[in-house]
Amino acid sequence: MVTITKNINSNTSSNKNTLDSAMLKVRIEHHLSHTLGDIIINNVIDKQCTETKKAYWHATSLALNEVITEKLNQSQLRQSQSACKSVNYLSLEYLMGRLLSNNLHNLDLYTITEKVLKSLGFELADLCEQGADLALGNGGLGRLAACFLDSLATLDYNAMGYGIHYQHGLFKQHFADGHQVETPDMWREFGSPWEICRPESTQLIPLYGHIEEVPQADGSTETKWTAGKTLKGVPYDIPIVGYNSSTVNALRLWQCRADSAFDWDKFNNGDYLMALEQQVHAEIVSKVLYPNDEHAAGQELRFIQQYFFCACSVRDIIKRYQAQYGALTPAQSEHFSSKVAIQLNDTHPTIAILELMRLLLDEFQFQWQDAWQLARKVFAYTNHTLLPEALEKWPVKLFERVLPRHLTILYRINEAFLNEEVNAMWPNNDNMRRALSIIDEGGEGNERKVRMAHLCVIASHKVNGVAQVHSDLVKSDLFPEFNQLWPKKLTNVTNGITPRRWLKACNPLLSALLDSEINADWAKELTQLSLLSNKADNADFQQQFMQIKHQNKVALTKEIKALTGITVSPDAIFDVQIKRLHEYKRQHLNLLHIIALYRRLLADPAMEMYPQVFIFGAKAAPGYKLAKDIIFAINKVADKINNDTRIHDKLKVVFLPNYRVSLAEKIIPAADVSEQISTAGKEASGTGNMKLALNGAVTIGTLDGANIEIAEEVGNDNIFICGLTVDEVKALDQNGYNPTDYYHNNEEIKACLDWLDSDYFTPGHAGALSPIKESLLAGGDPYKVLADFQSYSDAQNKLNVAYQDKKRWARMAILNTALMGKFNSDRSIEDYIANIWQLTPVSAN
Ligand code: 6GP
C-alpha cells in the first residue's frame, strides 16, 4: 500500500480560482520572455502579425496551464485519497478541437483573460484562432469521446481517457477545381502547450515472435511467448478541465518509439540509414490517424496501432491500481473490479480484453476462471454503428503472426463460450455455434477472421447503443442471439453533447441572453432552459433571440466570403449540412433537391421562394471514391448556381473547406435549418443534430437515430420530419427496391439526374458527374435517395413557407433551444454511471 504524504490544500483544490488579472499578466509576460524567448524585434511588437499573435496565444495557454496543472495534481491526489472507482475510456479517436477558449470558460477565467489581453493590445477571440485543432478523430465517435471527457470532469468523476498521440491528426482539406485535396495535419509541428510528457509511465510492448508449450512439474503445459520485437509507449497527458468543478482529469495519449533508438553497431559500420531503421519503423505506429469514418481499415499497421494503444493502456491501468492498492493477486480480483471500469469505444480497443487476460494469466499467475471473471466485470462496450463495412474483422493469420499468444487466449475464450454458454442454451446446435462464434470460418476460399464485436459482447458486462432506436436495432438485428442469451446485457445510452463548448463558448451572444433569462447555471443544468418555453411567443424575446441569430449569420457571412469568395445574404435561410461525407448521410439527397429548386427557378423566375443558402461542410475518406464524387458535384453545381444571375440570388450553395470542430463552432450558431437526412436505421444517433437544435436551428430530418428523440422533446410542430421509417426501409428491401421506377415515374427526378449526366455543370466534360446518377440507378440506390426525394422536397417547401412567418419561425427556434436539456452529455454520463460504471463523484467541496 502506498502512503500518501502530501496534503490537499483546500483553497487551491476548490472550483474557485485565485488567479487575478495582475498575476495573469505577469505570467503571460513571463512565458513570453522566458519560455518562448522574446519575439520583440528592435523594440517593436507588430501586434497584427500572425507570429506575434501565435506567441501570445502560446504564452496565454502556458500561463493558464499553471492553474490547470495545479488542479490536475490536486484532483489526482483527492481521487487517490478517496479510493474511488475510476472509469478508463479507451478510444482510438478524440476530436478535441481547440482548447484555449474552452479551458478559460470552464475555469471561469475568460473575462479576466480578455481584459488582460486587451490591456496588452490583443483580442482574446482573435488569439484563440491561433490554436491548432486537436483533430485526433474522424467524426461522431471521436467528438463524443471529447464531450464525455468534459462531462466526466465537470461532474467530478475520476476518469482517464486513453488514446494515441498521433503525430498527424485528420488530414486538412482544400478544393482544387472542386475536387477534395488532402494535406497532412501538423497540429504539433512546433509543440503543443497543452501536453505533459510522462516518461515515468513509459511502457514496453512486445509483439510478433513465437509461442511454445512448456511442460510443467504437475504434468500440464504452459504457453510461453517469446516476442520478436518490442515497442516503447511514451504517454502525453492532456488535462481535461471540468466546468465549474474542482476536477481536472487527464487524457493520456501514447506515442510509439523504438525500444532502442539507434543501432550503434550498424552506425559504426557505416550503415547510417539502417542504424535508424528500428526507430523509423516504431514511429510509424503513432504517425497518423486512419482517415476512415465508419469503415474498417484492414491493414496490419492499423492492427498494430490498436494493439499498441490497448497494451500501453491496460498496463498503465494495472500500474496505477498497484501504486494505489498494492499487488494485484487473484485474491484482489473483486477489489480490482470494484475500483476499475474500462469502456471500449466501439470495437477499436477490443484487444484490451485479450491483453488484460494475457497479463493476468502470464504475468500475475491468475487461474483462467479468476482472470475471465475479472475481465467480464471490468469491460463494457459501446456500439456506434450497424453498417457492415464498419464492423471489424481481422484475419486469423494476422493475429497469429503479430499476437500469437493473444490468439491462443481468444481461442480458449471462444471454446468455453461455445461449449458452455451457447451449448447450454442451444444444445448441439451447429448453426448457433457458427453464428455466435468469435471466429468467422469464412467458407470456401475465404480466410478465417476474428469478429471483434463478438469478442466485445462476450467479454463485456454491458453493451450499449447510442440512441433508443439504434439500441433497439442492435438487439433485434445485429445481436439478436446474444440478446436472447443475456437479455439484460444489451442496453441504451442516448448520446449527448457538452453545452459548454456547443453553446456557452461558441455562441457568446445567445449565452449572454440565456444568462439574463435563466436564474441557474444552465451550462450545467441544461434542462433549466425549458423555462424559455414560456417566452417562445413573447414578441420582445423573439426579437432578441432572432436578432442574435442574425448577428451570428452576419459573422458567418464574412467567414464564407473569406474562405470561398462567395457573397451570401444574412437575410436568407441558412440551411446547414455538416458531417462526414457518406452515402448513408445523403448529402446527395440534399444536392438533388438543390438541383430541383434551381430547375424550378429557371422554369419560373417569379416562383414564390424565400432565399435559401445551402451550406455544406464535410470531409470524405481519401479512398472513398463516390464520397469524393459527391463533393465534386456539390462544388460544380454551386459554381453554376452562384453565378447564374437569372435566379436573383434566391438560391446559393456554399461548400466550406476543411470542416472541423473549430469551423463547426462558427457555423452552428448561425444555422437556421439543420439537415439530418440519413436513411432511417443507418445513423446510430448523430450529435450534430443536438448541437444545431441547441443553437436554435430547426431540424429537417428523417426518423433516424436521435432525431426521433429530438422530435419527442420539441414536438412535431417544431421539426420537419420526412422520409421512410426504419420499418418502411426494411419493407422496401424485402419487397425489392427498384430505384428506376422512381426515375421513370417522377419527372423531376429524371430531369435532375439527366442534367447531372450532361455537361451543364462541367462545361466540356459531360459525364464528369455521372457517377452519382449511376450509383442511384444501376448501383441500386442502396440508401434510398430516390425513394425519399419527394417527401424531402415537400418538407423543404413547408420549411421555406414556415420561415416567412417570422413569429412562427422564432417560436420554433426558441423551443428548439429550450427543449434540448435531455441531450446534455452530463445526462449521458450519469446514465453510464448508473447503469454501467457505478462510480461516485469526488469533489473538493
Ligand atoms: C458515429 C455514428 O455514426 C453517429 O451516429 C453517432 O452519433 C456517433 O458515432 C457517436 O456515437 N459512428 C462513428 O463515428 C464510427 O466510426 C464506428 O463508428
What features would you describe in this structure?
- It is built from 35 helices and 25 strands.
- The protein is of the alpha/beta class and 845 residues long.
- Among the domains are: 22-82 and 103-132, no CATH class; 499-822, Glycogen Phosphorylase B (Rossmann fold), CATH 3.40.50.
- The strands form 6 sheets. Strands 1, 4, 7, 8, 11, 12, 13, 14, 18 and 19 form a 10-stranded mixed β-sheet that branches. A 6-stranded parallel β-sheet has the order 22-21-20-23-24-25, sandwiched between helices.
- The radius of gyration is 28 Å and the shape is globular.
- The two termini are 27 Å apart.
- Residues 1-13 have low confidence and may be disordered.
- The structure holds N-[methoxy(oxo)acetyl]-beta-D-glucopyranosylamine.
- N-[methoxy(oxo)acetyl]-beta-D-glucopyranosylamine binds at residues 139-141, 144, 293-294, 346, 384-385, 390, 466, 495, 683-687, 705.
- This is Alpha-1,4 glucan phosphorylase.
- Its EC number is 2.4.1.1.
- Belongs to the glycogen phosphorylase family.
- Its cofactor is pyridoxal 5'-phosphate.
- It is an enzyme of class 2 (transferase).
